[in-house]
Description:
With 227 residues, this protein is an alpha/beta fold. 25% of the residues lie in helices and 17% in strands.
Amino acid sequence: SEPPPVPIxxxxxxxxxxxxxxxxxxxxxxLAETLQKITGAGYGIAKESEYSAATRPAIYLGKTxxxxxxxxxxxxxxxxxxxxxxxxxxxxxxxxxxxLYGTFEFLEKLGCAWVARDAERIPKVVNPTFSxxxxxxxxxxxxxxxxxxxxxxxxxxxxxxxxxxxxLRNKSGTFGNIGGVATDDGMLPxxxxxxxxxxxxxxxxxxxxxxxxxAMGKDGKRIDGTF
Length: 227
């Protein structure tokens, strides 16, 4: 049997690619901010071309050359991977939000939890360590808690932002656009309701010849979707 993985101390430098996308930039800032809360120490963020791997270990975040050379190859949409490579740590993922989900998976492994928009648990650890590997992906494309947040106007912008952060950290696939990530699997997010016309039976294509496919109004007339 293989020997158990050796824990490594979490490096204090976060290295991104030279041209990180919005999801990588957001993941890096979230990782640095949360690790500082955990340890009390500062965590720097550097681009890969500006950092010498021979100087000291680092957390390689996103689509870095180091991750490509020491990782598993291409990852599926929104799949994440967290693994050690020597004394370095790799956190990467498939577009668009895999690297964000990998970052939050890693922080959860350290003991963090976001249990509500106004409640988080951040452990206090002077020298956190990590060993082994975390790998996964969402199996359900539409991941949404339906509320009146976006339609009723009951909540302040500040509260809306808190709700967006809560859902993003728990891998919700909809509601909010923090970090400029507006796509899912490289496409616009799937609508979560009223989708028969969008996916199965287009009003434009079928109503002229098959009005019986569509709902009937109180007046006995078929509804063509133009209301």
